[in-house]
Amino acid sequence: MPDPLRRLSADAPVAAMLEAYEADGALVVEGMVPGGIVADLCAAATTYAEGVEPGVADQGMGEDGKFFVGANTIRFSSLGRITPAYFDLLDNEVYAALADAVLLPNCGSYWVNTAQVMFIGPGEQAQVLHRDADNWFQHVAPTWPDCPEVTISAMIGLEEVTEELGATRAVPGSHRWPELNVYEYDLETVPAELAPGDAFVYSGKVLHGGGENRTADRWRRAMHQGCNACSATVRTTRGPTSAAGSGCATCAPSRTRHDGSPVGRRSRRPPRRPRPRRRLRQRRPNAIGWSRCA
Ligand SMILES: O=C(O)CCC(=O)C(=O)O
CATH fold of 7-250, please? Predict the structure, then answer.
């Protein structure tokens, strides 16, 4: 069993957080998002979620995407449309400092790629372990695992997130493993348990996935906020769905700039992205959604 994820308070030195991030590819930042913002986000997301059917989100990947997300999981983006608290979240200085340190050495600026509520429902199975950087495999594959970081993410607890509820699972150290294109269920993982406002901050290089919700009647309420390197050469996000809900939200340098440019959908499949389907069939013939992958 890998060591648990390192946990640091949001007022710890950023250098200490980066040390944990470098070593494991991920860490938990306790109290990263102030309580009032979390409460507003949670209330707005919970209300909005009442009108969203579980299992319909497809990440722009059709049936493959539905399988990836899960049959009893609710996801939606455009969070700036449901509460202004989302823009307060965008101003988070701790997350910005981490994203600055991880992404800016590789690019001119970085953009929000994903802002998505991820509510995992009772009985949902564990998601396949994957790397977010694989969405931009054409940028990372040639020099993997020594390639520049293209994406950093935070999974933020909107309520308490326990292992039983489906805390995100991660494989610390897998950001340095030699094979990029890995989709697995059976690796040894550790859960990223969160109090409301805690954030699991992780590299696009680290293997991770949503956990199984083993409860009969409780939802895992969390949201994902991801940023991507963005420059003339590494511009990877575009599409009709705005993560912020009103044009472009750029984290740096002004943190929350809204200039009307499009910002992309998460997990949009690039034209020749390696597909997990064959691996899933071999490893887990009885997984939910199996028949849809035929
Ligand atoms: O829901 C989670 O905990 C993780 C989701 C995730 O990693 C993804 O969909 O890419």
Answer: Jelly Rolls (2.60.120)
